[in-house]
User: Which sequence fits this backbone?
């Protein structure tokens, strides 16, 4: 749909994904992440998610120093799916695909607005970090930075490309496995290829478990473990397809990835690492080198889609800065554009009354 800039007197009808924004220094980021809370004090500034309607967003959360803290195992796979499912149920997000490699988690999902996305991601990252600490005897920060969202345009080519990228993680570029279906960790690929809309995982109610133990009850994790169901949705560009046709399209993508992986392995003279060696890697270890390339602000191949997203972002940023300037000048009734988290107000000191 066409985008028309609006003046600062009215809030624009688009929302913005959080990216490399700024935040008040007093915000207890790690504490909020550990509790899975929404970062209300953030100033969100990246690519708009709603300029084209409810379109997908690619979300990436990387472990600290690239350590293999998400090394695949049966236990971690069930926990990861369960946390994603619970976050989906609590936030209402649509999950199209996801994969968890040894050092990063990458879902492709659609959201109504940035608030929903923020709630989903902070719930996932906070709870998953606590479980990873327990599983791998790790203490402290699990994630190297906050999650990186990249909006995808409404064009079919862009959405299919991102779906293929998520499905193909660990194959062509990394050379870890020969087929996306070989990945032993948390991934939606097998379910999509089998035509399954639902995946199940587990959720451990740690708070209830702790309270029961404090009351002196003899309980185990099993007593507070429930099954959570994750619902998979087609990407919007293929939403018109029935589930059988959608399954065949995903299978075609998998076949393409397998062929590209085989060709890449032959050209480089490499052999896939394989599941056994993958699971033998110590979770505290890290790669010798980390790939450091700047992430795009959004995924859009056509010039028109790229320009529309860029203009929407620029307009949002201008309106936000104007509102922030008014707030700094003492105008407490300032309205911020839709899709941003206004900065928190400073602490109000009580007036000292002489005795």
Assistant:
């Amino acid at each position: 749909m066409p985008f028309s800039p609006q003046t600062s007197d009215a809030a624009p009808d688009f929302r913005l994904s959080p990216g490399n924004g700024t935040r008040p220094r007093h915000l207890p980021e790690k504490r909020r992440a550990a509790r899975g809370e929404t970062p209300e004090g953030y100033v969100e500034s990246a690519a708009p998610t709603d300029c084209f309607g409810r379109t997908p967003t690619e979300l990436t959360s990387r472990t600290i120093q690239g350590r293999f803290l998400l090394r695949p195992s049966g236990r971690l796979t069930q926990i990861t799916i369960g946390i994603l499912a619970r976050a989906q149920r609590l936030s209402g997000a649509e999950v199209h695909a996801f994969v968890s490699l040894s050092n990063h988690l990458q879902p492709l999902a659609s959201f109504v607005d940035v608030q929903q996305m923020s709630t989903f991601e902070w719930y996932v990252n906070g709870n998953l970090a606590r479980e990873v600490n327990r599983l791998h005897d790790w203490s402290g920060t699990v994630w190297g930075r906050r999650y990186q969202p990249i909006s995808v345009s409404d064009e079919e080519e862009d959405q299919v490309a991102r779906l293929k990228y998520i499905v193909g993680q660990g194959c062509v570029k990394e050379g870890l496995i020969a087929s996306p279906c070989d990945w032993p960790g948390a991934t939606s690929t097998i379910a999509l290829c089998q035509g399954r809309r639902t995946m199940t995982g587990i959720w451990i109610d740690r708070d209830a478990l702790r309270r029961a133990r404090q009351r002196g009850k003899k309980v185990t994790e099993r007593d507070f473990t429930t099954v959570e169901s994750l619902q998979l949705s087609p990407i919007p560009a293929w939403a018109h397809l029935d589930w059988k046709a959608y399954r065949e399209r995903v299978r075609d993508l998998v076949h393409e990835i397998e062929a590209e992986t085989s060709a890449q392995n032959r050209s480089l003279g490499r052999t896939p690492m394989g599941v056994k060696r993958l699971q033998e890697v110590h979770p505290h270890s890290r790669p010798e080198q980390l790939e450091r390339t700047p992430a795009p602000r959004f995924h859009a191949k056509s010039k028109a889609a790229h320009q529309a997203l860029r203009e929407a972002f620029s307009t949002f940023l201008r309106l936000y800065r104007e509102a922030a300037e008014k707030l700094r000048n003492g105008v407490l009734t300032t309205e911020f554009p839709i899709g941003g988290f206004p900065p928190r107000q400073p602490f109000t000191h009580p007036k000292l009354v002489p005795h």
